[in-house]
Design goal:
The complex is a heterodimer of chains A (348) and B (333). With 348 residues, chain A is of the alpha/beta class. Chain A has 2 domains: 11-114 and 196-347, P-loop containing nucleotide triphosphate hydrolases (Rossmann fold), CATH 3.40.50.300; 115-195. Chain A contains 11 helices and 12 strands. Chain A has helices spanning 57-65, 105-110, 132-143, 148-161, 167-171, 180-192, 210-226, 238-244, 262-267, 272-279, 284-288, and strands spanning 13-26, 29-42, 46-50, 72-82, 94-96, 115-118, 198-202, 230-235, 247-252, 255-261, 334-337, 340-342. In chain A, the strands form 2 sheets. An 8-stranded mixed β-sheet of chain A has the order 6-7-8-3-9-10-12-11, sandwiched between helices. In chain A, α3 crosses α4 (148-161) and α4 (148-161) packs across α6. The longest helix of chain A has 17 residues, at 210-226. Chain A is globular and about 65 Å long. Chain B is mainly α and 333 residues long. Chain B has helices spanning 2-28, 34-44, 51-60, 67-81, 94-129, 134-148, 151-166, 185-222, 225-232, 237-243, 245-249, 251-256, 260-267, 269-274, 280-289, 293-321, 323-332, and strands at residues 86-87, 92-93. A two-stranded antiparallel sheet of chain B has the order 1-2. The longest helix of chain B is centred in the middle third of the chain and has 38 residues, at 185-222. In chain B, a hairpin with a 4-residue loop joins β1 (86-87) and β2. Chain B is globular and about 85 Å long. The A-B interface holds A 65, 67, 69, 103, 108-113, 116-117, 119-121, 124-130, 138-139, 142-143, 174, 176-177, 187, 190-191 and B 224-226, 228-237, 243-244, 247-248, 321-324, 327.
């Protein structure tokens, strides 16, 4: 991929997703939750994935973890994960996660160890009847060759890393004894306990209040900077993307519509959908100068998931709709310049 | 935890009082009592009645006094002397009549529960992760058949076939040789060879019930995010199930353990009569028929008390496995 030269010099690839398709065969029809996604994450890189609800961003994440709820299935594509350097084989080992059974031993060795995930709802992400410490040490005991006392030490140390106040005491607390922000710290600690190469964060701050959100975002940036971890950050919040990500992937209806670095997304957006998203952010100066009374929104609604649109899936809502073109052929992802790709007929 | 237990025990005291009152009212409700019935029967047959003996019994249990005095006398004897009174029908103290019947009923209840749980909890878990598959429907069907067939019918069918095919008489808990023997190891062993029949028959209805409860609560829990989170740690599917959803889905079952004994006594009576078992339910049934008021009253009181104690133990067990209950009670204080 040309994007290898992007960002802070050439870095090794960690994850390559090629033409991933995750479909749900329901009685009402097939839902193409993920419909041909290409995505790259390099080492020590933070990639933001943005889009509206139902655009398939969470399902892309779940596909990587191979935790798609039934009847969802990966029907096509590859998820190539470059495992870290292995002493035994003397080479970085590339595995295609899409090939495994979802309960496969080899997959479970990677899950929670080299790739881990932070979920949206800290309130329900932890079992209410087990202590925070138990739920963290579980992953450590599973993936590392340590005894219980050592696992406890690692867990407390990880809790301290995520800036949990009084980690020793919190270790023996139950989740319902913690506040929302503390719970999300515990969930992050759980994901980081085995020092993963890739952290998938699926809207980790959506359920938190703004102050706590800012703290958690700071924390994640710090953690990423101090380790050589990559983060795939999934959010619908462009403000968060601006703060967190280097590269941004914009998704619409299961497809990547634009992919570039964070500056180009904000200053040089190409796809009409990306422009629409940016336009819908209220600007403080406009509000102060009474320029605008209503919020800008993208016209129309996300179409029914069972519907399969001819041509570009965004054409019914697109301000730049070209009749006879956009509703006829499906646009391909076009490389506009180094590291900037867009899926739109405006550029063909 | 200690605070919780003390609180919980304190709450039992007014309940026990109410229970004793209700037990007493129930045995007083039908007109007449065993003693007057008995005297009338003797007089009608033209036999002599020992007036002194009647007088003595009347006095001892205050049968000639108003109802509240009768109640006080009854409860006083129980609390102070540990005496539940005389069973008129058996001509022996109630304590003697009840003793080993209660023990056997207990044993039956415990064995039945173990049987029901070992079968239905794993099946409930299994069908919950295979919802709407053939296995799920199969066990649902078998379960409902088990639930729908009356226990006494099943008992008769089992008795018939075991006799017709194997020449076995499965009724009773003991072989005729041991029936009237005092307790010994041989008698106990003899009982173990026979007790599985009532355990099986009494258990089958409960099995379907527990499978359904387990399946429903598991389906609720499996949807929750912490299950996905547990999977994301790399745990095997079995470890995920056992440590996460099952830990919570089992709670409603634990809290239902307290009602085990009343269930065996009220639900199993017909089965136990058919199988000719010397259990509490059968004795209670006969005592009620013959208006043997002290025996019946004591039984109702004992069973009620055991239900209360059972639910106390179930609550303590629940608090032990579910921290939300433990800490909830502390916060209330």
């Amino acid at each position: 991929m040309a994007s290898d030269q992007n960002g802070a010099g050439a870095r090794e690839t960690l994850l390559e997703i090629r033409d991933l398709k995750t479909h749900f065969a329901l009685e009402e029809g097939t839902v193409r939750a993920v419909d041909g996604v290409d995505l790259d994450v390099r080492r020590r890189q933070v990639v933001g994935v943005v889009g509206e609800s139902g655009c398939g961003k969470s399902m892309t994440a779940m596909s990587i973890m191979r935790l798609i709820p039934p009847p969802g299935q990966i029907v096509e594509g590859e998820i190539r994960f470059h495992r870290p350097f292995d002493d035994r084989t003397d080479a970085a080992d590339i595995v295609d996660l899409a090939q495994f059974e979802s309960n496969d031993r080899q997959l479970r060795d990677i899950r929670g160890n080299q790739i881990s995930m932070v979920f949206q709802e800290p309130m329900t992400a932890l079992s209410p009847v087990r202590t925070v410490g138990k739920q963290i040490t579980e992953a450590i005991l599973l993936h590392q060759d340590v005894n219980k006392a050592e696992a406890r030490d690692i867990a407390i140390e990880t809790l301290a890393r995520v800036k949990m106040p009084n980690p020793e005491q919190r270790f023996d607390d139950y989740p319902f004894q913690l506040s929302g922000g503390m719970r999300q710290r515990a969930v992050i600690a759980m994901a980081l306990a085995c020092r993963p190469q890739l952290l998938i964060a699926d809207e980790p701050t959506t359920a938190l209040d703004v102050t706590t959100e800012a703290q958690i975002l700071d924390l994640m940036r710090e953690l990423q900077a101090e380790s050589d971890m990559s983060i795939l950050y999934i959010t619908h919040n462009l403000g968060v993307v601006a703060e967190m990500a280097e590269d941004v992937v914009v998704m619409y209806l299961g497809k990547v519509v634009e992919r570039t670095d964070v500056d180009s997304i904000f200053y040089n957006p190409k796809h009409p959908y990306t422009r629409g998203l940016l336009n819908s952010i209220p600007r403080l100066e406009d509000v102060l100068q009474d320029k605008r009374e209503k919020l800008n929104a993208i016209e129309g609604m996300v179409p029914s998931p069972y519907q399969r649109l001819q041509g570009c899936s965004f054409h019914p809502r697109c301000p730049d709709f070209m009749p006879g073109v956009c509703d006829e052929a499906e646009p391909q992802l076009i490389q506009l310049e180094e590291g900037h790709a867009v899926r739109c007929h405006l550029y063909t | 935890m200690t605070v919780y237990i003390i609180q919980r025990v304190m709450r039992m005291i007014p309940l026990l009082f109410l229970l004793s009152l209700i037990a007493f009212l129930i045995i007083q409700l039908p007109p007449g009592d065993y003693l007057t019935e008995h005297i009338n029967a003797l007089r009608a047959s033209g036999r002599d009645v020992d007036e002194a003996e009647v007088e003595r019994l009347m006095k001892q249990y205050a049968l000639d006094r108003p109802m509240h005095v009768q109640y006080l006398t009854w409860i006083q004897n129980i609390l102070l002397k540990g005496s539940f009174g005389q069973s008129f029908q058996w001509g022996r103290p109630v304590n003697e009549v009840i003793g080993d019947k209660m023990a056997l009923t207990f044993l039956l209840a415990i064995l039945t529960t173990i049987f029901v749980w070992t079968i239905s909890v794993p099946i409930g878990i299994y069908v919950s992760v295979r919802q709407y598959t053939f296995t799920d429907y199969l066990f649902t069907m078998i379960g409902f058949i088990g639930l729908a067939v009356p226990g006494f019918l099943l008992a008769m069918v089992v008795m018939y076939f075991s006799f017709a095919w194997f020449g076995l008489k499965v009724g009773g808990l003991f072989s005729p040789a041991f029936e009237l023997e005092p307790w010994s190891i041989a008698k106990f062993q003899n009982m173990l060879t026979r007790i599985w029949v009532p355990v099986l028959i009494l258990g089958i209805g409960g099995t379907a019930h527990i499978i359904r409860i387990m399946r429903a609560t598991m389906l609720d829990e499996l949807r929750k995010q912490y299950v996905t989170v547990a999977r994301s740690k790399g745990l095997s599917e079995f470890a995920v199930l056992m440590n996460y959803p099952v830990r919570i889905a089992i709670n409603p079952l634990i809290s239902s353990l307290g009602f085990l004994l009343p269930w065996i006594i009220s639900g199993g009576t017909v089965v136990e009569i058919v199988l000719n078992l010397p259990t509490a339910a059968v004795v209670l049934y006969r005592a009620l028929l013959s208006q043997d008021m002290f025996l019946a009253g004591s039984f109702i009181l004992l069973v009620g008390t055991l239900a209360l104690v059972g639910s106390l133990l179930a609550d303590i067990a629940l608090a032990a496995v579910d921290p939300r209950i433990r800490f909830g009670s502390v916060e209330e204080m």
